[in-house]
Design a protein that fits this description.
Layout lengths: L24 H25 L3 H24 L5 H26 L6 H25 L11 E3 L3 H8 L1 H7 L9 H16 L3 E3 L13 H17 L1 H31 L19
Antiparallel strand pairs: 1-2
Helix pairs in contact: 1-2, 1-3, 2-3, 2-5, 3-4, 3-5, 4-7, 5-7, 6-9, 8-9
Length: 283
Amino acid sequence: MNSLFQPFTPDRNEPPRRRFRPVPLRLLIPNLITLLALCAGLSAIRMALEGKIELAVYLILGAAVLDSMDGRIARLLKGTSKFGAELDSLADFVSFGAVPALVLYLWGMNEAGPIGWIAVLVFAICGALRLARFNVQIEDPSQPAWMANFFTGVPIPAGAVLVMLPIYLENIGVPKGLIHPWLVTAFTLAIALLMVSRVPVFSGKKFGAKVPRESVLPLFVAAIAFVALLMSYPWIVLSVGTLLYLISLPFGAAKAQALARAEAVPTEAALPAAEGEGPDRVA
């Protein structure tokens, strides 16, 4: 009697199965940094739930530092990828959209009732919209040249740092009346609108690309002094830095408008003289 299950002999002429190629390490390092930033943001939720608001703020700031590194390291190692870009957007929404909103709500905006929750909800939604618009604009070839050094609206990591200004002020002893939940609600909505606005915001991408040799040592000293001040007086430095950033927004927008006008107005020197536009032509 024949067996129901006949032995199977694979065809030796079949092509071998396709094996996955190993992934270069340079592609993994930026993604690992992004995941570390995501872990810091998620850990901030736990700290906020345990009432450790200050530690939650530190974790969000740490996530912002890591977020500023992953893209630069990816470009430096030539390890940019579509996967990394998508992962970075998802991590940014969690760490700088959802987490700061929850931290603010647990810190004191719950005292504003449903309006406080609506404000933090709007902030998180505007963060998601800001990221979606940014991803679309990256692939837009019609962007003017001057926009290479500007963002459209406040970027979401900066929005997360800005929206926590009331927490900074509380830790330096600002009276509670000046950071009342209703005022914080209005401030949160204002930052949310800045993220989805069309206001050009200076990005600093090209700033410091080449540093003059005589400025290297002063730059090192300034960086060390800033880190020392941040570690010694964190809440004062964060408060002053946030206020200076907000004050600088109108100046950045004015500079962008000036660049746009300069690009839109054609210069007479660029027109060919054969068309009768030379300086010696008589009407």
